[in-house]
Amino acid sequence: xxxxxxxxxxxxxxxxxxxxxxxxxxxxxxxxLVHYRAGEPIFMPGTIxxxxxFICEGxxxxxxxxxxxxxxxxxxxxxxxxxxxxSAMHTGEPARFGCExxxxxxxxxxxxxxxxxxxxxxxxxxxxxxxxxxxxxxxETREADLLLMSPLELYQQFCTQHPALNQSLPNYQIAAYLGxxxxxxxxxxxxxxxxxxxxxxx
Length: 202
Prior knowledge:
48% of the residues lie in helices and 19% in strands. By secondary structure, the protein is α+β, with helices and mostly antiparallel strands. The chain is built from 9 helices and 7 strands; from the N terminus they run H-H-E-E-E-E-E-H-E-E-H-H-H-H-H-H. It has a 4-stranded antiparallel sheet. The model has no long low-confidence stretch (mean pLDDT 91).
């Protein structure tokens, strides 16, 4: 494990709570780096896994599979996001959603019990609280958007907040995030006069 591989993660987490190199080394001593290729599952729905994974680089996605087989993307994950199920880690029960690497992705991974023990000490206790607060706020905003905004408004917001993802992700991934079909996404783009190749999921 090199400093370069985890430097961006260190910088992002230090913006939440100040960390020094000694603090950081305590985490690294409990962790390992895991590489996932684009399209590879990080964990599957229904699996039991008590690993806490911080994204160091790349792009991943939490997703649900509905009973009819339809995929719904919960959130896109980038540097310093956590690619794990909090409920599965805490209860030891199977995860209700999965996680997939959308690009080649590097994670810093450690066992949840080890992280809990680390969080008995500062600054990790404060960082844990900051991560939980960030997750709760993100979840609240996401739920409100899905309930209160139209598909058109959701897509416009997505373009504003994630312009790079709008250009790089295939249509089915964006549609699954907005909770609509690929055809509906194509129609919305047509209404907006957006020129974007229609890449149907095969």
